[in-house]
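Most newcomers find our protein records easier to grasp once they have seen one. Nothing more is needed to start thinking about how sequence determines fold. Here is such a record, shown just as it appears in the course material:
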Amino acid sequence: MAIWNGVKVSAAGLCAIFLSANMAIPAQAGASPWMQTGSATSQPIGHYEFCQNHKGECSVRSRTGTAPRVTASGWTAIRQVNASVNRQIAAITDQELYGREEVWAYPDAGKGDCEDFALEKRRRLMQKGFSAGDLLLTVVRKPDGEGHAVLTVRTAQGDFILDNLDNGVKLWTQTPYRFLKRQATRNSGHWVTIDNSAEVLVGSVGQ
């Protein structure tokens, strides 16, 4: 048994407390709450094909500069959209649904994979008045090496992640992912690299 804040707990309990406490700590002390984007990079093939069917959504030019400060009602909308899409859409692979990989589409039939969840969240938040330049499809790598897609919401408080694997809305540095690239803020059909993801990842490993 061990003592934690004057209370006796088992070793397993102490481990659980330790892990729970660390979950709330940013991945790296001093890590930027905003992603630093770099040069133009390749557009995911799935997004390219999506754009052929939704040309208007992939040609949005935004005059986005400083990320906007989100109000309390805005945060409520973000959390509700993330949780409701996660609840309403059944997760299924592209292979199971379409018979091939890398199909990005709105999950209008109530089924889809990670990219489809992200697209639907983006669509619903735009319907609520959020700017396309602040709702960015983002490609990441999971700890097991598998590719994954999430939605990044740019705010004055930081870059936050909407993920079909997590009902919580978290700062990007508090996720377990290596961030690879995302949509450009000024052109919804262009993609850019994420330059400071490796620094955050190293900080997370060192915790």
Observations:
- The chain has a mean pLDDT of 85.
